[in-house]
Every structure is written in structure tokens, then in C-alpha cells.
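Q: Joint fold for the lines below.
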Amino acid sequence: MAENPEKIKKVSIIVSRGSLDGIYPGLIMANGARMEGIDVNLFFTFFGLYAILKKYNNSIKIATVGNPAMRVPDAKGLPLPTIVGILPGMSAFATWMMKKEMDKIDIPPIPEMLAMIDDAGGNIYACKATVDMFHLTKDDFIPQVKRVLTVGEFYELSAGAQIIFT
Amino acid sequence: MAENPEKIKKVSIIVSRGSLDGIYPGLIMANGARMEGIDVNLFFTFFGLYAILKKYNNSIKIATVGNPAMRVPDAKGLPLPTIVGILPGMSAFATWMMKKEMDKIDIPPIPEMLAMIDDAGGNIYACKATVDMFHLTKDDFIPQVKRVLTVGEFYELSAGAQIIFT
Amino acid sequence: MAENPEKIKKVSIIVSRGSLDGIYPGLIMANGARMEGIDVNLFFTFFGLYAILKKYNNSIKIATVGNPAMRVPDAKGLPLPTIVGILPGMSAFATWMMKKEMDKIDIPPIPEMLAMIDDAGGNIYACKATVDMFHLTKDDFIPQVKRVLTVGEFYELSAGAQIIFT
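A: Joint structure:
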């Protein structure tokens, strides 16, 4: 290992998945970076866009179906068989439990978390290709979304940054 | 932030998922990078390998089941309940709609997109461990696949690059 | 491209998914990095935590449901229709087949692979927020887990490293 390795100074975090467990890691890494004084660009693309859509970002669920790791959120409890994931309502139940646990350890809901990152100086962007594909306009997004960016603009903004695709 | 932060000059993009929404982000980032003059290595591993398999890469679908964010591709429409995802045919329907929208904004199908990236000078590789595990040979892949690489070779090729795992 | 691009010297690999196909890529990249003399920090978060839980990490399955790329592990065989993924037992069957194939090419089960990475000098960490959310303690983890880290500590440890989120 190099002596005096260079500290992380800037991150470009991409959020591409639309489930609760797909969105939170990127938000937590963005928030943690700002708390360390690291520059942050948060870029939402594909189904990750749901996190910044005014109409949807407060009702996002965990991906239980197709997630064989999904057991009761308390890993010490009895694991539920995978098949439970396909019962209607199961995703809502697991989501409710997880949100309750997140609340206890002070992880705020998605809209509040985005406002916090924005307040702390993080920059929030939406991906142009996805915006066009889903026929969205600036009005569909939460006010913290700064701009709609092309992939080229994303790379330019990422000069000197670690790119983290979540 | 450092003044004059260093521009992104090279990216090593790994595609590891096998669904349409798992494959496209890597391809779009690879294509966007080449358009900016950024060097590109595209590395396909695990189920991401389906993207470069001649027999399969034109029939890849969206992951509707287990994707609670999946609603009608036009996010302004009425969201479909999660349970719809498990109905047979739903994935095919959502895939058809998404492909139609992608076509409108000039995002080509996977095989054409890979040919485009190759033409633009991007390098396409397959992961040796996955190739061995699935008993594949060079003949199973599209002609644009340059070589089958070990993880060690991947790291060597990534000297000076940002590694982006999608 | 710069002449003499800088070799990858250190990687910080994050494992965030809890399925077999979500966990292995990070482990294979960590192991491959150590074999090349690259420094490795492996950080487990969200459902990725299952990989280091003593009680669960030997019974992790493939995500068949919701994974439209999932066909018979041998890609040359007949593809199974997506709907098969929701049949109980299918995930177990696909997992069994994949494990058999991995064994043939000398990819060890998750617990052995983690011991190997630890023996080779890789550092294994758990994410504090997830540990708190799931009410876990150090005792729930395999002995190779060095410490529970905050996101801030993760960034500090990642100085000079490529961050790879899998």
C-alpha cells in the first residue's frame, strides 16, 4: 500500500434500483460522505428515479419477492421461507418493519433524507435518458433535484471523484 | 474539492445482472464514455453474461417480479400493484413497452448497442470463472467479445481506470 | 489514455445484496485482488450482511424469482420460462446446481471463501447502521469479521482505494 494514500475527496453516487433496499445504500453513503466533508453528486437513473419522484418517493417498498435473503428484518428471528415473498402484502409488511427499525436508529424516510443531503450541500441530479423514456418533466421531481444530466455531463461532473454505482 | 480535479480518462464497467434494467445502465455508461473520449473496458460476469450470448441477448426482459418499483413504464400512469409482477406475461409486456420507449429516444437493442460500443473502440470481455461455470466457449458469444479474462487480468487492464460495478 | 496509468493498489468492496449471485461477485473480486497483491477491504451492508452471519451464510440461495435471466445454470440447455422461478424449491434446485458447478472450478462455499480472503490478508467489516437495524452483535458474525464500521470510517479506510459497490 502507498504511504499517505490519498483521501476520498469527492464521490459520484448513482442510484439505479427502485426498491427500499436498492435506494437507501446510496443515500446513506451520500449523507455519510457529506458528514466527512466529502463532495457529493447523487445521480438517479432507471428505476432509481422513483426516489426523486414527488408522487412515489414516500411509498417505496422492500424487494421481498426474488430476494432469497429476505427473512424477518430481525435476522435472529425465524427465517421465513422464500415463498412467503410472493404473498400479497408481504412486501408491505417487511417494509413497515424495516422503516420502524430505521426510524429507531435515526435513519429518516427517503424524502427527508434527500432534503438533508441537499441541505448539507450534496447535489442531486436525474438521468436524461430515463427522464425522456418515462416522459417526465422537472415538475414531477422533488424540488431538491438540481438538473437533468446526460451521461456525458455526469462524467464531466465526476472529475476527481470516485464513481459508486449502487 | 481539489482545484483542477482530474478528469475521468478511463472506465472499467462490470455488468453482473441479467435483466434488461440490469444490463442497460452499463451499456449506456460505456457508450456515453466513448462519446466523451473516455477509454472503456466492458466486462460481463455472472448473469450479465446473457448480454453477450448470441442465443439470448436479443430476448432479455425486465425484472418485474421482485421489483416493487416496477409500475407501468410511464411513471405518470396508474401504478400497477406489485402482485401483477408475478402474472405470467407481465414481464414480457413491460419489456415490450420499455423497448418501444427506448427506441423512441434512440437507445438501440442490446446487440446493436454492443456493436456500437465495439465500433467506437470500447473493449468487450467475458469473465473466465462464469464462462467455465456455465460451460461456455468463445463460439457462444457475439463476435465483439475480444477475450475471456480472469479477475487478475481485469485488474491489470483497469490500471488508471474508475471501476464501475453495475 | 495516460502513458503509464497507475495500477490498482487497493480496493474497498461493498457487498449489499443477500443472494448467492449478489454475494459471490464481491468475494471473487476480493480474492482475485489479494492474489494480485492488491489491498482489500470488504464491507458488508444491508442484506449482504447474511454472508457473514454464522447462522445463515452456509444456506444462501440464488435469486431465481424476479431474475428473468435465470435459466438452467448451463446456458446451453433449454431456458426455463420465468414463471418457474416462483415455484417453491426452484431456487433451491438452481442453487444446488450452481454450487456443484462452482465446486468443479474450485470456487469454495461462502464461509470457506471468506476464511481464504481473511487468511490472505483481506479485511472484513460489517456496516454499523445495518448491524443496529437488525439488532445484531459481534457474536452473530463469523470470527473473520474485524470490526463494525460507520460509513465515515469506511471512507477513511478507503483512502487511495477504488470503491466497488456490488
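Q: Anything notable?
A: Chain C touches chain B at residues 1-2, 5-8, 11, 21, 24-25, 28-29, 31-33, 35-36, 38, 63, 65-70, 73-76, 79, 81-83, 85-86, 98, 101-102, 104-105, 107, 162, 164-166 (CB under 8 Å). The two ends of chain C are 26 Å apart (CA to CA).
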